Amino acid sequence: MEFKDRRDAGRALAKALEAWRGRPGVLVLALPRGGVPVAWEVARALGAPLDVLVVRKLGFPGQEEYAMGAIASGGVRVMGEADAGWPVSARELEAVVAREQAELVRREQRYRGGRPPLDLAGRVLILVDDGLATGATMSAAVQAARAGYPKQVIVAVPVASTEAVQSLSALADEVVCLFTPEHFRAVGLWYQDFTQTSDEEVDRLLA
C-alpha cells in the first residue's frame, strides 16, 4: 500500500473511521505538522471539529530522526524504555528537551492563537498523525490527552510499524492503522509525495 500524499492518506483513513461519522462529542486532534493534512480529511468526512495537539519528538543528538522520547502539551515527557542504555548524557538530554520545548511553545502560540486550552472532558478523541515509526510522539500525545479526562482516546494513522501499533494499543482505547509493513523503515517511504508540511499549510487548514 502506498499513498499519493497526506490528503490521500486522510481520505483512506476516514473510511476506516466511518462508524464515528456524525456522532456527538467526537473531536479530531492532529499532531502538527504532518498530521494536520491527514486529520483535516478525517474531520471533514466525519463532520467533526478539528484542532491540534502539539507534540515534539526528542531526537538523539546528531541522529535527530531517531526518537529517544517525546514531549507534549501539559508538561508530558515520554522516554523510550531503553534510553538509559544509550550514550546520551543528562546535559545533552536537557539541551534537546529545552530546544524542543521552545519549538512546542512557538507552535502552540501560532496554531492556537488566543484560543483557550482544549476542553477534552467526556469527548471521544481521535488522534491523527501521518504515520508511526517508534510511536514515542503519539505515546506522549495519548498521555497528554488522557490528562483532559476524555471518554475515549483513539489513535488513527495511515501507516505504522508493528512495534508502534503494539505499544500504542496498551495506551489508547483503540488503534486504527491501515497498513503495517513487514519492513517498515520510515514513514515517508509509504508516500509518493512526503513533502514537509509548512506552518502556512497548517494555518490554512485549521482556518
Automatic annotation (TrEMBL):
Name of one Pfam family that matches: Pribosyltran
Q: Which residues form the Phosphoribosyltransferase domain?
A: 9-174
> What's one GO MF term for it?
glycosyltransferase activity
**Transferase: present as a keyword of the record?**
yes
Give the highest taxon in the source lineage. Bacteria
Q: Which UniProt keywords apply?
A: Glycosyltransferase, Transferase
Which SUPFAM superfamilies does the protein's record reference? PRTase-like
**Name by which UniProt lists this protein:** Phosphoribosyltransferase
Tell me the organism. Variovorax ginsengisoli
Its lineage opens with: Bacteria, Pseudomonadati, Pseudomonadota, Betaproteobacteria, Burkholderiales
